[in-house]
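ESCALATION

Customer reports they have been waiting on this structure for their group meeting. Please prioritize. Original submission:
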Amino acid sequence: MFTGIIETTGKVIELSKNSGNLDLVISSPISNELKIDQSVAHNGVCLTVVEIKNGAHRVTAIDETLKKTNLGSLAVGDVVNLERCMKTGDRLDGHIVQGHVDQTAVCTSVTEQDGSWLFQFKYAPSRNNLIVEKGSICVNGISLTAFAAEGDTFKVAIIPYTYQFTNIGQVVKGWVVNLEFDIIGKYVARMMEFRS
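Update from on-call: job pushed to the front of the queue and completed.
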């Protein structure tokens, strides 16, 4: 379980295909503190650490993960958001995040607004995912509040701290991001399906 509060960012220093899987080597300030078998969210995707060496760690994304997320489009030098799983007893500063990306979205606009930024995203509505006005949404692993949620689009407002210390500041129109919809909303939507 995660909170969507990004701990740090890391840089992709190596990518290698292994059958249908993709091995990613990420250099980050926390890599040497990690443990083998530890779960770490990478752009909101929960991946298992399989190797730690020289200030970097290796994780593997399987084919299913590559189909549903933006990890397959990463290149050497790209920056990823990192969050270690939460500890029992910690404050839940963001919202409950599983690290299981539901789908991707495309950034349709970025507008600077006197010290903050508005991002609009569009996603495929065919998967019956639900965004509630002023509800939680996880974008590239970042816990954010969605607004102007209309059909298959929504907006988020980004404060300077988040813009500077996550990879959202690198997102421009046309970029693909990972989305994880609010787990409570997903359960409610599923229950409503059964009652229909």
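Sent to customer with the following note: The first strand starts at residue 8 and ends at 18.
Escalation resolved.
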